[in-house]
Design brief:
Largest sheet: 6 strands, antiparallel, barrel
Distance between the termini: 30 Å
CATH class of the domain at 157-260: Mainly Beta
Radius of gyration: 17 Å
Number of helices: 2
Structural class: mainly beta
CATH topology of the domain at 157-260: Thrombin, subunit H
CATH architecture of the domain at 157-260: Beta Barrel
Shape: globular
Order of helices and strands: EEEEEEEEEEHEEEEH
Helix content: under 10%
Length: 273
Amino acid sequence: MIWFVTFLCCVGLIGAEVPFNHYVNNQRVIGGSNAKPNTWKWQASLQLDSYNQGSFSHICGGSLVSAFYILTAAHCILSKDVSQYRVVVGEYNLYEYEGSEQFIQVEKIHMHPQWTGNLGIGNDIAILRLAKPVYHNGFVAIGNLPRAGEMLPHNFTCYITGWGIMDYEASSMTPDILQVSPIKVVEHAVCSQQDWWGGIALRSMLCAGGDGVVSGCQGDSGGPLNCYTDGEWRIHGVVSYGPSGRCNQLSKPTVFTRVSSFHDWIYSIIQDV
């Protein structure tokens, strides 16, 4: 489970107990601020019960893309045992049970067939089928996807959301609320330059950030890059990797799996209900 080489992507786990009393120790987007309640309704928390003891910990983000399906990163899948996973949607404050949450077990994991475990090769994308459908309670919504092959222009403003750490050097700072921050797209021609990410920044990836201020970090993996295009908020990216060490390094933007590059594969799965 890495961001890049030795960079642990999803450490700083959230210790979540039963739904009505789930204490957590969560972390956030670097450079972010508290999201407005009930806004990013497709945001999900992927949680793992490492020891099969009924105690789930947040490991990654995700996005609701169908009543039955969650989009996340392939590198977030630490175990093939689906009974060890659950997804929480309608979540906002991870310290409190607010009545908006839905806690749902995972029934099946679809890893991209070309995922090798090497982030530099790409295909860092997975889809989780839920054991039961998410129901509409006013706090959840199915996220829209971009057009197949769509690429965003340089400096286009999107928003990263998640519960990843807010400061790599002060990870004990653990705010409880979903974080959000605007983050600017870095076009492939720039991101693939040698003093940026070079050859490991592929066209099937999307770079954003690199200003030394805003970035995703540990705990954000698998979560969405939210961009307003064609009159709708759409999930254009899935958090994949960042630099080893400090997350918000200059000229080392957060790298996302580009959702538009996997359009056909995603729909081949989520339409099979």
